[in-house]
Description:
Blueprint: E1 2-8, E2 16-18, E3 30-35, E4 38-51, E5 63-66, H1 69-95, E6 101-107, E7 113-119, H2 127-137, E8 140-145, H3 148-155, H4 166-169, H5 179-184, H6 191-194, H7 209-218, E9 225-228, E10 231-239, E11 244-249, E12 255-259, H8 260-266, E13 269-271
Parallel strand pairs: 7-8
Antiparallel strand pairs: 1-2, 1-4, 3-4, 3-5, 6-7, 9-10, 9-13, 10-11, 11-12
Helix pairs in contact: 1-2
Amino acid sequence: MIEVIGVRFKKAGKIYYFDPADHNISLNDYVIVETVRGVEFGKVVIANRQVDEEDVVLPLKKVIRIATEQDKHDVAENQEKAKTALEVCKEKIIKHELDMNLVDVEYTFDRNKVIFYFTADGRVDFRNLVKDLAAMFKTRIELRQIGVRDEAKLLGGIGPCGRMLCCSTFLGDFEPVSIKMAKDQNLSLNPAKISGLCGRLMCCLKYENDDYEAAKRELPDLGDFIYTSYGKGKVVGLNILQKIIQIEMTENERVIEYTLDELIEEKVISTQATE
């Protein structure tokens, strides 16, 4: 076992583990740590805990120190500088006539690098833009192309449900989402109804997918024929979450509702729709 803390560098960013060393660190403290990008300022979202060594990538970087008020002031100053850099870069993009959309700008904590996030339909030759920016800001410049889901995560917004976007409030990582998930949940396949602000399938389709898949393994399929105590019938409706099956009786076309437990209790016989 090894002692770790979990640190986030952005509001809904990925959680990274660090060695707390000898520091007395509490939840929601801000810390200064060393990362592959250099020295960074982050928030503790997981307090000291013991985890198995195989669950983390060793060796862990150690916490340099708990953030001071000066550190917090420096971060606020970096954010103001980033706003200026954003406007300057937009002007330079127009000047160089580049087909790209600037999304966000970020200064690293130690100001050794400025990162510009952008979206574009294809590859962009931004070498001259980088030269201009480097000459202006006198530091290392990185232009990072991101996808539309990352753009929504950075910018935030309100989803079709009326709540703030999941990706910008609590989702650390994007889960794969497929059209099959929408089909399994009997949702409309109209792209306008199952797509988020980013234009991709909504992340929330994943949330209940495991429950739907488990339920579908237990329930008969639409069109299957079932023999019950009332006789033979055809499955014409399913309430997957409540595990209710609607059966239309062959003899009198009466529709009877069964719960899955009731069908199991009756030990009914199910056959395929091709019968």
